[in-house]
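@channel sequence for tomorrow's demo:
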Amino acid sequence: MKFFRRSNVKLQARKRRWKFFVRSVITLSCVLALTYTVRYLSLHLEKLKINSILIEGAGGKLTTGVILKASGLSVGMPIFSVDLPEVVRRLEQDPWIDRVRVSRRLPHTLLIDISRREPKLILSVGKFYYLGAHGEIFKEVEGAKDSRDFPVLTGLSREEIEQDPPRAREVFTQALKLLNAYEGQEASQPLGLSEIHYNSASGFSLFPEKARFRVIVGFEPFDGKLKRLSAALGKLKRMSQSFASIDLNYEGKVILTM
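structure tokens (generated this afternoon):
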């Protein structure tokens, strides 16, 4: 029995030495392969230079030149030296950029894909600010270089917005829904729209650009009310009757204030 025990001990010792040898060989092979790979990459990837920068989504104030300058990229840079998240961060500093994606197209091209912000309303709170399609305030309207050819949203103060941002954002979202519903009606074309006014008690009112009356809409839902507006304006036009306001808050009819 002692003989067999000694034999088992020697066999186990040989197995341990063999396993250690195999692990050592594998480790050394991995180190040599990694060293070769790093050396290869250092010698060859530097040769991969940017020779083309493709920009998708440019337009309006976001010209190709503006985007390229903001990105900090230029032809001739090593393509693998570009820090893609940093390029995205720099581009997102521009208020006109909503979303941006930057990617490599090997061997020599970088792609910049831009989603632009488009103003839908101008918020009036002492100063004027653009409201985007998602109800976000994204830029102050400055000087003659920024267009003012958008309906103005009034009725909220700066203090109200700062004290309750979620509530303000909800008002912005509702105003955009009203704008979209109004623009979907035939009546919106000849009337235009100058202002959307919000009142916490009575809701929204519209002030057409090309007519001298107020449209009292109230709160949601908007579609049915605005359909009544289109029908009522058709009849009123034939009657050549003037009025100060038209209230859409009564099911099946409209109320005129003369």
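heads up for whoever presents: The chain has three domains: 2-46, 49-116, 121-257.
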